[in-house]
Amino acid sequence: MEKFTLIQSRAVPLPIQDVDTDQIIPARFLKATTKEGFGENLFRDWRYDKQDQPIEDFILNNPLYQGQILIAGENFGCGSSREHAAWALGDYGFRVVISSFFADIFKNNALNNGILPIQVSPEELDGLFQAIEHDPTTSFRVDLQTQTLQVKGEKEPIFFAVDPYKKICLLEGYEDIDYLLSLRDKIETFEQSKVLQ
Amino acid sequence: MGRTLFDKIWDQHVVASMEGTDVLYIDRHFIHEVTSPQAFAGLRKRGIPVFRPQQTIATADHNVPTVDQHLPISEPQSRYQVEQLVKNCADFGVELYGLGHQKQGIVHVIGPELGITQPGMTIVCGDSHTSTHGAFGGIAFGIGTSQVEQVLSSQCLVVKRPKRMRITVDGQLPNGVFAKDIILYIIAQIGTGGGTGYFVEYAGSAIQNLSMEARMTICNMSIEMGARGGMIAPDETTFAYVKGKEYAPKGAAWEQALSYWRSLPTDPNATFDAELNYKAEDIGPMVTYGTNPGMGMLIGDSIPVPKNGLSKSFQKALDYMGVSAGESLQNKAIDYVFIGSCTNSRMEDLRVVAAYIQGKQKAANVKQVIVVPGSKKVEAEAIAEGLDQVFRAAGFEFRQPGCSACLGMNEDKIPAGAYCVSTSNRNFEGRQGPGARTILASPLTAAAAAIEGRIIDVRTLDPVMV
Q1: What pTM, to 2 d.p., does this model score?
Q2: 3-class DSSP state for residue B260?
Q3: Per DSSP, what are the bridge partners of residue B287?
C-alpha cells in the first residue's frame, strides 16, 4: 500500500447525506476481476446521463472543483460492503474523504486502500463547505502525523481522530495482512487451544 | 458483572489484542463471485495458499442469470467472473456450490439451510448482509475484499470491538404484520446511521416468537441502520432448526454443542451501551417512500413534512421517487413486483405469497412479477409443494436462484421511472436499475400490490393472513 504522508490539495464538495456505495459505484460495474479502472465509473449515474453525456451540474463535471479531497455529507459510504467503492475513489484520485459521519464497512475499506476518512463535527463540516463555496480554490492541508486538517487562511487547524494501529499502517504503508501473516504461529496455537466449532 | 451474548462469543475468538483493536478468529467464511476475485489475486501475488480451506464455502449468486442456468452465461463479463470463481476454488481447494449445483443459492440462504451457520460462531463474507447469520446467535458481519484476502490467508481479521446495543420488541404482532415490517419499522425510527458503531442484539417476546426464517429477515437488515451486525439469542427454535442439517454436529458432538449454545444468551445483569424498546402492537405493514431504508413509514401514514423545511438530500430523494411530502402511498399504482433476495426468498416467504395469490391474477397494469427463490433447495421445495404452479397461474414468473433484481447486476432490472414493490433490502437510487424506483415491503404487501396493481394495507384483506 502506498504510504500516506501529507496531502495539500483543493477539495470537491458533495453536500449530500447518506451517500451509499451504490451511488459511488453502481452494481453493474462490479463485474471486473481486478481492482483497476473503477474511477471511470465513480458516481456514474450522477455524473453521466443515459446517453453517457456528462451531467453539467454534477460537481465532478465542474472544472471549478478539483483535488484529492472529497468533502461529503453525513453517513458517507452506507450500504453495500463493496470495496470497489474505495477502489473507485482512489482510482479517480481521491486520497482523503471528509464527512461528519462514515459507515463502518466503508471506513475500513478506505483505510485498507490508503484513503484517509476524516470525521469532523457537523459544524466543522458546514464550515468546510462554506469555505469552498466562498472560494472553490481554497487549499486544505491534511497532516496524518499530527492528525490535523488545516484550511488555508484559517488560524487554527481541525484535529481529527485516527485509530493508532491504522495510523501506523497508513504512515508506513503496512497492510493488515502483513500483520496477520506474522501471527501465524499464534493463530495455530489458538486453534489448538480452542474447541473449534 | 454479566456478559452479553456478543461479549461471550467475541471474547472466545480473540487471538491477540492491542489498544481496542482485536485479532478475531473466524469460524466460517463465505465467498461469492463478485467480491472474491481480487482477494485470490492477492494470494497469488504473495504466493500463499488458503490457510484453512475447509472453513470457507463458495457459491455463485450475485451475478448469475435467473433463467436457463443450465446454459453458459450469455453476458461475457459475468460469465468470466463466475468462471474465475470456479478456477479460484479449484486452485485453492475451496468447496464451491456453483451454478447448477443442487446446493447453490444466495450465500445467506444456503449457509443456514445447510447447517453451516450455527450458534456461537464468528462468520464473515464479502457482503454486507452477512448479518443474516446472526439470527442463530453468532457474530456475523460483512467485510471488504481486502478482508476476504485476510481471512483466506490467516482465518483472522484485525477489527475494532464495536459497542453493544439491544433492541427489544415486546408484545403480540398484529395480523398481517411480518418480520420485514418489524425491521423496516425499527430502521425508520433510528435512521440509516442510527446503528453505526454498534452490534445489535434483538430481544423481547415479539422476537422470541419468530421462526428462524423470520429472525433471519430481521438480522439481515441490521446493516441498513448502519449496525455492524445483528444477533438473536439461540433458543429451542434455533436448535430445532439446526438439528439434523447436513453440516450440523451429530451424536455426542451435538450434545456438546448444545450445552455450549445454551450458555450463550445474555446474562440477566449484563449491560449494553445503548438500549431501545418498541411495542409490537405499534407496528403495522411498512413501505418505504425514499431512497434509503430509513425512509420508511407505516402504510397508514403520509410521507413526513420536515418541520424545518425539506433538506436538499430529502428533496432529492422525493424527486427521484416522484412523490411529495405529505403524500400517502396507499392506492399508489405500481409497475413491477420483485419477490426474492437474502431478506425474503425462503419457503415461509413463498408460502405466504402463494397462499394469498391462489386463484387470483396479476393486475393488468403490473408489467412483471418475478419470484426468485433463495436457493436450489428452496426452488425444489417450492416445486414439490406446487407453489410454482400457483405463481405461474397468477401470471407471476418463477425463476431460478440468485440475488437478481435486488441489486440489478444481472439482467433482472427495473426500467427507469417504474415503481417496483420489492421484498429486498435496499431502495437506493438505481439499486434495481438506473432510474428504478423501489418501494420496500413485506412479501404479503408485495403480493397484494401485484394482484391489486396498487399498494394496499394488507390488514384490509379478508381474511387477514398471519
Answers
A1: 0.97
A2: helix
A3: B297
